[in-house]
Design brief:
The chain has 438 residues and is an alpha/beta fold. The protein has 2 domains: 227 residues, 3-Deoxy-D-manno-octulosonic-acid transferase, N-terminal domain (Rossmann fold, 3-Layer(aba) Sandwich); 193 residues, Glycogen Phosphorylase B (Rossmann fold). The chain is built from 19 helices and 14 strands. The strands form 2 sheets. A 7-stranded parallel β-sheet has the order 3-2-1-4-5-6-7, with helices on both faces. The chain has a 7-stranded parallel β-sheet with strand order 10-11-9-8-12-13-14. Strand 12, helix 15 and strand 13 form a beta-alpha-beta unit. Helix 1 runs antiparallel to helix 2, helix 6 crosses helix 7 and helix 8 packs parallel to helix 10. It starts with a helix and ends in a 6-residue tail after the last helix.
Length: 438
């Protein structure tokens, strides 16, 4: 066992010991948090796992947060259709991801799916979780590579896979510093199925040229808008006092760092041409909503928080989203969408969701994490890259003042999504051979 893995394991053992000692304190002082704490310690009670499934293959899918959960549920639906006896455990790293998973699973066609928080990546915790869950296969989504979990599973003879693999150049630079920790894990994965050839090349830089990698496309193209999301969109439209098809609504989704300020600069220019324009800002992290509200007021704009609109009507020109799980529905309200994380050098955010709604999508030059989707949208005329605040304002004004061109651009965005479906089935087919119990 290499030195870096031993160091990582030892650090985990120290954290595990500290957590174990604090368990009585957490139980006494934070009883509402204790269930989550136990799950992080790899303790899963029967009511969480629903029931044990003897003689039926159990597949454990692990997703980081909200974005990966949708991929996991889509994949489970296909796997369930391929093998009706398969049962699933879906773990998430974040609590927000778990809440989103539970919402999706309520309307999912996949029955008997347990939803848990992922165990901490320490040897005692992982071993306890593996013994309790007893999976036949562990499937990690996108870039979720936990060394102890995967190596422990591999040592037990449990199949392991990386599906819908996606890795940014920033992540490559990070992983290269800990290559001796990650490389053995990658080399022992039974299935590596990635989004693009670029992702395959980047993984080989970390894991070695001999990695057996298959390129199967992006499962997020297979996403669909559920009836629940349409209902949510209609409810928000009423709450936000937006007359269907008549309001000039701009949605800035998943904004990060100083992007809200940049969007507000653009909105100031937009309002000179379109006095009744409405801006909805949805920060990537809702905890930033208060700060954005403060910035909006400093700029002299009227502003309301989404959470206040359940009890009072919208009168302000700007709404700041301070809730989780509503962004997809909010995109449905827009005439024009700007996707954040792209004017700041942060790799971009998911542009597929607004395109599914048939909305014109604008984004900045820093879309490294979604390059393929960007190229497809730009080539089809469903999306456009903008370089700065001024261009964001100009393109938005052009679209809002030319509704036919705006609708045509949105139509191209939706058609592009429809034309590139099928990746989730291709990824699932890579797993099908490994679904039988070991």
């Amino acid at each position: 066992m290499d030195r870096m893995y031993r160091t990582y394991q030892a650090a985990g053992a120290v954290l595990h010991a500290a957590a174990s000692l604090s368990s009585p304190f957490v139980r006494a002082c934070y009883p509402a948090f204790f269930s989550s704490f136990q799950q992080r310690m790899g303790i899963y009670h029967d009511h969480l796992l629903q029931r044990r499934w003897p003689n039926q293959p159990c597949i454990w899918l692990h997703a980081a947060s909200v974005g990966e959960v949708g991929v996991a549920v889509s994949l489970m639906n296909v796997l369930h259709r391929q093998n009706r006896h398969a049962r699933f455990v879906l773990s998430t790293f974040t609590a927000a991801g778990q809440r989103h998973a539970r919402r999706l699973l309520k309307i999912s066609e996949t029955p008997h799916t347990a939803c848990i928080l992922a165990p901490a990546d320490t040897l005692p915790t992982v071993n306890r979780a593996l013994k309790t869950i007893d999976p036949d296969m562990i499937v990690c989504l996108e870039t979720e590579l936990w060394p102890v979990l995967l190596r422990s599973a591999q040592c037990r003879g449990i199949k392991t896979a990386l599906i819908n693999g996606r890795i940014s150049q920033r992540s490559v630079n990070h992983y290269l510093h800990i290559r001796s920790l990650i490389q053995p894990v990658l080399q022992r994965l039974d299935v590596i199925s990635v989004i693009s050839t670029i992702d395959a090349q980047r993984l080989r830089r970390i894991g070695g040229r001999k990695l057996n990698i298959t390129v199967n496309g992006n499962t997020k193209f297979d996403s669909c808008l559920s009836k629940a999301v349409y209902r949510q969109k209609d409810q928000l439209q009423s709450l936000l006092n937006l007359e269907c098809g008549k309001a000039s609504v701009i949605v800035a989704g998943s904004t990060r760092q100083n992007e809200p300020q940049m969007v507000l600069d653009a909105f100031d220019t937009i309002r000179d041409s379109i006095a009744d324009a409405v801006l909805i800002i949805a920060p990537r992290h809702p905890r930033r909503a208060k700060r954005i509200q403060q910035i909006v007021h400093e700029r002299g704009f009227s502003c309301q928080m989404r959470s206040t609109l359940d009890t009072q009507p919208r009168t302000a020109a700007i709404i700041v989203m301070d809730t989780l799980g509503e962004l997809s529905a909010v995109y449905g309200l827009a005439q024009v969408v700007f996707c954040g994380g792209s004017l700041a050098p942060l790799g971009g955010q998911n542009i597929i969701e607004p395109a599914l709604w048939g909305k014109p999508v604008l984004f900045g030059p820093h879309m490294d994490d979604f390059k393929d989707a960007c190229k497809l949208l730009v080539r089809a005329g469903g999306g456009k890259m903008i370089a700065n605040t001024l261009q964001l304002a100009q393109e938005t004004i052009t679209l809002l003042t030319h509704p036919e061109a705006c609708a045509a651009m949105g139509h191209q965005a939706r058609q592009t999504m429809d034309a590139h479906r099928g990746a989730v089935t291709r990824h699932a087919n890579m797993l099908r051979l490994f679904m039988q119990p070991t």
